[in-house]
Amino acid sequence: MSTIGIIGAGAIGSAFAKALAGKCLEAIIANSRGPESLADLARELGPSITPGTREQAAAQDIVLVAVNWSKLPTALAGLPDFGGRIVIDANNPIEAPLFKPAELHGRTSSEIFTDLVPGARVVKAFNHLPAHLLSDDPQAEGGRRVLFFAGDDAQAKAAVSGLIERLGFFGIDLGLLEDGGWLVQIPGGPLPVLNLVKFG
After folding, report:
1. Does the record bear Methyltransferase in its keywords (predicted)?
2. Which domains does the chain possess?
3. Cα–Cα distance for residue pair 174/182, rounded to 1 Å
């Protein structure tokens, strides 16, 4: 099983960690304030989630990044080349309290994100639902809650799809990062916040 790192301990990062903990999957979680600030969260989530430094989280096989859009460059600055490892883009170019869309100059948010993680195989995922739906039981209404993902590398997408399945969700591949990433981008895409369930 691939090792997992999480950069960002806000709503989405914490919900993803909670989902992993619910399946006893191990991960290192990091934020901008240091491991000590995450001690209470780690105790709440259980022994499979370990607070660490940003560098420790970024060194894992699969790294989920969920940081306020305006803080992404700082959060990722200075990290070593990812060397072909998988980075999950769980970010959206909008943030509280104003929820004003960021200026992307005609690009998708995932294109901009990819520039910040040199050497990474980027997969867009875990960004289109409210945080509580990521950490709640994915067995919903008699089926499995749907999570979308998109990326340009087939092996990376297969690994993220496998993780989605292990967490109990039903993954749907939206294709390449440019097209699929836009479909789930908040704001602008048609698929965000749709709480879809796969039956059968």
Report:
1. no
2. 4-198 (3.40.50.720)
3. 10
Tokens representing residue 8 in the block: 């960002």
Tokens read off for 20: 């992993």
CA distance 133 to 145: 9
Q: Are 5 and 59 in contact (CB under 8 A)?
A: yes
Residue 77, SS3 per DSSP: coil
Sign of the alpha-carbon dihedral angle for 8, 10, 11, 16? positive
Any idea what the Cα angle at residue 106 is, between residues 105 and 107, rounded to 5°? 95
* pLDDT tens figures, 130-169: 999 999 999 977 899 999 999 999 999 999 999 999 999 9
